[in-house]
Amino acid sequence: MLPLAAYVHIPWCVRKCPYCDFNSHAAGAELPEAAYADALLADLDEDLEQVQQRRLTSIFFGGGTPSLFSASALGHILDGLERQVGFADDIEITLEANPGTFEQAKFHDYRQLGINRLSIGVQSFQADKLKALGRIHDGDEAVRAADMARAAGFDNFNLDLMHGLPQQSLDDALADLRTAIAQQPTHLSWYQLTVEPNTEFWSRPPLLPDDDILWDIQEAGQALLAEHGYRQYETSAYAQPGRQARHNLNYWTFGDFLGIGAGAHAKLTQADGRILRSWKTRTPKDYLDPGKPFRAGEKQLQTDELPFEFLMNVLRLTDGVPALLFTQRTGLSLDLLAAGRREAEARGLLVADPQRLVATPKGQLFLNDLLQLFLP
Fold it and tell me: Residues with Cβ < 8 Å from 307, sequence gap 6 or more?
């Protein structure tokens, strides 16, 4: 049976950042913690028939800013997930957290709940860059957050860091990266800022580094990370040995995941082999309205869509996956990939290995070109 994970969406932030296109909303004076936690478990109850007696291998609390919620609210949610679905013995439970002092004060309580991994949204350690990004913490708080995480008992934590920031130089980017490495996180998510529709940056674009600077940052940053023992295993993910994010690996290997919360998405394989993607009501107000359904829509993936859907995830991994995983996760024959593989190998985008599906370094750089060869 396919592994099963759960994504839990907490949609509130102190304020909306100008680059953010996630489903997040500015929190009011008081968060409806109890009502939302109860709604999450009612939402979960409606999805239980698709669990098929599997236990959860990972849980990810994302947002928004989940660390705005109290330990008691998160504990209620975790108790419900364990009672209604069940946990694998070695379950990974990740909570996204802001570096602010208010959130740090809760780290010990979160660890006592059984949350065993934090993902701390630093983005930068430099005051001018944090201001440009609309972040509400400062660089000192970001450094203290790593210390507080360790003191609270978290021996596994990620730092989220951006590059390609407004008016960022190569030296700026490497200084941020060196500061992050000095905190000794087990995992680093290091990714380029992109300007997305429906954000403040889209309507008022900042001055971003040119392509030559971006390339220099990427090249020098990857070398610096490798020098300090952080191996790139996915497009924007770097980890110490054995510390890859298991929850995200489940996404990238086309595993199944429940999605509960406002706007959450799910991908679940049915007992008859059909694969369904579904999504929940987006706004917190509608999600909390007992007169409205949790599920906003669903789509069954068709046979001709599955090669692209599968490869869109697994080819992000620098080592790829065993070729047979395609059949195990989709129920389809590898023959469906044959024509696309031949063309991709001829163009130098895919490694010519019958036992594995893995992009070449060129294929990693031109991943969209590679994936287009497998469109229906």
Answer: 326, 330, 332, 336, 337, 340, 374, 376
Q: What secondary structure does DSSP assign to 236-248, as a single string? A: TEEESTT---HHH
Q: 259-311 pLDDT, tens per residue?
A: 999 999 999 999 999 999 999 999 999 999 999 999 999 999 999 999 999 99
- In 3D, which of 247, 352, 318, 240 has the Cα closest to residue 4? 247
> How far apart are the C-alpha atoms of 364 and 345, rounded to whole Å?
13
Calculate the alpha carbon distances from 81 to 33, 58, 134, 273 in Å.
Answer: 16, 11, 34, 24
Instruction: Check whether the bond before 64 is cis (ω within 30° of 0).
Output: yes
Tell me the pairing of strands 87-97 and 12-13. Answer: unpaired
Quote the CA–CA distance of 144 and 227 in Å, as a whole number.
24
d(CA 38, CA 330): 34
Residue 224 phi, psi dihedral angles, 5° rounding: -65, -45
Q: Does the pLDDT value for residue 199 go beyond 80?
A: yes
- Tell me if the pTM is above 0.90: yes
CA 209 from chain centre, in angstroms, equals 25
Q: What is the pLDDT of residues 206-217, one digit of tens each?
A: 999 999 999 999
